[in-house]
């Protein structure tokens, strides 16, 4: 598998953090630090910050994403936001299937698939999250869990669609816990996901697919994680809320 065939992407997931003035200040601090980065840089922000982020990132190397989207273009879905609404704002990326959505908001593999389809149809790029729970890793079924999540999420997606999908492998036990997967563990599962993609499509599609690692990635461990042959950048939660930390991760991935 040839790492040179794909671009690393570092994406921040701000989760439910930052008011609009705080968002503007963070982007103002971050933009000069990631100028000319050797990888793509995305910040996925709360819906209320999207316009602020789009405005503040204009003319910079930072792209803007949302943290979720609904599968219907419009309708009686109180509290939801459609992919079309995001695209209309000028948003480029959307996270789908984050483990916090699965854990706390009843997201299933099937709804992840529907949201992915809707996002692609609206012209968005998808950061599709998969990952096992701690007890699943301990039971030795990580590959089965992650393989199934990947296959269901990608059901109905064409090879062309894959060009706009990034997979983020995020072991749930490593998210926000400070417990990082070792570089070897991250690479092993990312490699496995790539073999799943190869079986579903072909080698060229698998080689071209950006597969990130996410889970307590920070300025100190980013070098080792992003240097792994099957790790193409990362999805960053906590460390994306501090400009210097996030920029250090971007620098590591851009090497
Ligand atoms: C995430 O929210 O996707 C994430 C990886 O969080 P953290 O970096 O805080 O573990």
Task: Give an overview of the whole structure.
This protein has 255 residues and is an alpha/beta fold. It has one domain: Aldolase class I (TIM Barrel, Alpha-Beta Barrel), CATH 3.20.20. It is built from 12 helices and 8 strands. An 8-stranded parallel beta barrel has the order 1-2-3-4-5-6-7-8, surrounded by 5 helices. Helix 1 packs parallel to helix 2, helix 1 runs parallel beside helix 12 and helix 5 crosses helix 7. The longest helix is centred in the C-terminal third of the chain and has 18 residues. It is globular, with a radius of gyration of 17 Å. The model has no long low-confidence stretch (mean pLDDT 97). The structure holds phosphoenolpyruvate. The site of phosphoenolpyruvate (PEP) has 13 residues, from strand 8.
Bound molecules: phosphoenolpyruvate
Alpha-beta content class: alpha/beta
Portion of residues in beta strands equals 5-15%
Give the radius of gyration: 17 Å
Task: Produce a short descriptive summary.
The protein is of the alpha/beta class. The protein is built from twelve helices and eight strands.
Task: Write the topology of this structure.
Blueprint: E1 9-13, H1 20-33, E2 40-44, H2 50-57, E3 62-66, H3 83-89, E4 93-96, H4 99-104, H5 109-121, E5 125-130, H6 134-138, H7 142-154, H8 159-162, E6 165-169, H9 183-200, H10 203-208, E7 211-214, H11 222-226, E8 233-236, H12 243-253
Helix pairs in contact: 1-2, 1-12, 5-7, 7-9
Bound molecules: phosphoenolpyruvate.
């Amino acid at each position: 598998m040839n790492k040179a065939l794909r671009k690393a992407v570092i994406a921040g997931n701000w989760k439910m953090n930052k008011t609009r003035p705080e968002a503007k200040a963070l982007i103002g601090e971050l933009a000069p630090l990631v100028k000319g980065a050797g990888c793509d840089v995305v910040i996925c922000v709360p819906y209320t910050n999207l316009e602020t982020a789009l405005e503040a990132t204009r003319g910079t190397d930072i792209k803007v994403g949302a943290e979720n989207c609904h599968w219907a273009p419009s309708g009686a879905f109180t509290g939801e936001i459609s992919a079309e609404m995001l695209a209309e704002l000028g948003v480029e990326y959307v996270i789908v299937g984050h483990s916090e959505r699965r854990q706390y908001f009843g997201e299933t593999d099937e709804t992840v698939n529907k949201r992915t389809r809707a996002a692609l149809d609206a012209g968005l790029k998808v950061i599709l999250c998969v990952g096992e729970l701690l007890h699943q890793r301990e039971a030795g079924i990580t590959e089965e869990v992650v393989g199934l999540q990947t296959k269901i999420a990608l059901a109905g997606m064409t090879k062309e669609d894959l060009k706009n999908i990034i997979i983020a492998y995020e072991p749930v036990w490593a998210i926000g816990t400070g417990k990082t997967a070792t570089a070897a563990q991250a690479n092993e599962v990312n490699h496995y996901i790539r073999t799943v993609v190869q079986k579903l499509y072909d080698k060229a599609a698998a080689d071209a697919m950006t597969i990130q690692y996410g889970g307590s990635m920070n300025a100190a461990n980013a070098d080792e994680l992003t240097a792994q042959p099957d790790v193409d950048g990362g999805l960053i939660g906590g460390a994306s809320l501090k400009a210097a930390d996030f920029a250090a991760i971007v620098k590591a991935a851009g090497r």
